[in-house]
Amino acid sequence: MTRNIALLGSTGSIGRQTLEVVRDLGLTVAALTANSSVDLMEQQAREFSPRLAVLYDEAAANELRVRLSDTKIEVLSGMEGLIAAATMEEADTVVTAVVGMIGLQPTLAAISRGKRIALANKETLVCAGELVMDAAQRAGAEIVPVDSEHSAIFQCLQGCRDQSEIRRLILTCSGGPFYGLSYDELANKTKYDALKHPNWTMGAKITVDSATLMNKGLEIIEAMRLYRLPHSKVSAVIHRQSIVHSLVEFKDGAMLAQLGTPDMKLPIRYAMTYPYRAEHTPTALDLLSCPPLTFAQPDEKAFRCLAIAQKCAEVGGTSCAVMNGANEAAVGAFLREEIGFNDIPALVETALDRVEQVSNPALADILEADRLARQAVVSHLK
Ligand code: MG
Fold this sequence. Notes:
This protein is globular. It is an alpha/beta fold. Helix 5 (104-112) runs parallel beside helix 6, helix 10 (204-212) packs across helix 14 and helix 15 packs across helix 16 (363-381). The strands form 2 sheets. Strands 4-3-2-1-5-6-7 form a 7-stranded parallel beta sheet, sandwiched between helices. Strands 9-8-10-11 form a 4-stranded mixed beta sheet, with helices on one face. The chain has helices spanning 13-25, 38-48, 58-67, 78-86, 104-112, 122-139, 148-156, 183-186, 191-194, 204-212, 214-227, 265-273, 304-315, 319-335, 343-354, 363-381, and strands at residues 4-8, 28-34, 52-55, 74-77, 93-96, 116-119, 143-145, 166-173, 234-238, 244-250, 255-259. The structure holds magnesium ion. Magnesium ion (MG) is lined by residues 147-149, 219.
């Protein structure tokens, strides 16, 4: 069980909810990191008194250093700061709640110190899943997923002694705000439409990914890496109510699922207390007031991003990193209202066509694939 955490990405949605769990469970915080939110970071640092506070942005870190000058908290910036936070001696668990590829190097650094990783940064596993899981195995570092679907699967697999007994993993997918629409109907959807998620409150990037269903595509790859399963054993099903968080079917036909209210604090809390559970009644699911639970096939013709991700999941190599990098850049452009909704899959496809792919990539190949994919998107926008 976790006692002291380093929290990477403390001002985002998962980061803030992690700090609520930290308060509930009475944990201590060794380090906090964020991108550039000086005000919120100052507030969090004063409440949780970490030894280290990091803002990735150097100017913001300088401002924070001045503001915290009456405390003993050390302030750092940049990738160096993130890695220092990820490798803090006194932290037993590193929560990786940063968004995007920037989480990769700090996660690898934490793994090399044998920390437990409460993993909420799916891009890390999507781009470099094999490297991350190999490193974790070598260092004896536990990886406990925080993503709700992967936490559900992780919980269903407690007691499974032989991975070969798994017939398939089934990730549930809310369908997002545009469920039921055709490709043409999606064309004029704006960021304001996309940011209205029916069930979950999340950051902007993942909310757009949920609207395009790229999020489910990323999660299929994340599950393949976490559980070392081929693409043929991982699928997704639409489940609009977000009550069944995912399922595992075993070779004897038995199917296990984890159910609960859609509240990210449950998987966060489990990642902290695993292999135990903490008492917590407010989030209990009332079966008698549940809506009927329904399941449907996702529409990959309308939601092109899911089809693209399925293809990359099959191909492997650097294709997942190219897809992820291009998607991050395209979602950024969509949030700045520079492109339309259907331009997101189109730009990801453009990057996959343009960037040469490498099989069995090393870390350098993955970082390069990510860089070239973003560049392909940016140059296409000009
Ligand atoms: Mg999820």
